[in-house]
Design goal:
Elements (H helix, E strand, L loop, with lengths): L9 H7 L7 E4 L2 E4 L5 H18 L6 E4 L3 E4 L3 E3 L3 E4 L10 E2 L2 E7 L5 H5 L1 H6 L7 E5 L6 E6 L5 E6 L4 E4 L4 E4 H4 L6
Amino acid sequence: MLAVPNYISPEEYLDIEPKSPIRHEYRRGLVYAMAGGTDNHDRITFNLLKLIDNHFGTPSNCRFYSGNVKVNYLDQFYYYADAFVTCDPRDRNDRYIKRYPKLIAEVLSPSTQAFDLGEKFDDYQRLESLAEYVLISQENQRIECRRRTTTNTWETVVYGVGDRVVLPSIGLEFAIAELYRGLDE
């Protein structure tokens, strides 16, 4: 990710972003252009959203979103998570920004992996509603789930080939192979 090297206020970002042909994320005054994803990245995200949709059915108090809706914490960051779930009714008041996600998933890319594993996770931890942060590899069948404990610390569970993935924050369980179905080698 490349940042525009001058400070932009959150208000300026929110004014400019809807008019831009390129999506940008915002972090503490810097704006980062979003890189395009691969076909496998897109397919993994689609598969996850389909699993979540099938799990929730209708009606449901929870809503799930792809990378077109922003996750926000105060005015510190606005991120386009690959997929996330919110069950908080306050998130129904704004169609573009959600502030109370329960689960956030990022499909790892070579250009964003270090950020997703480090600083982005540091930022996401500020969201009191967040119970689970899911990091999905494109390179092999590997999912890292970071879960908030009752003592407000984080534990990590890693899933691999042949495993069943459990996402307790939303009560979903599935075979890891379902997430990687239809990918090109």
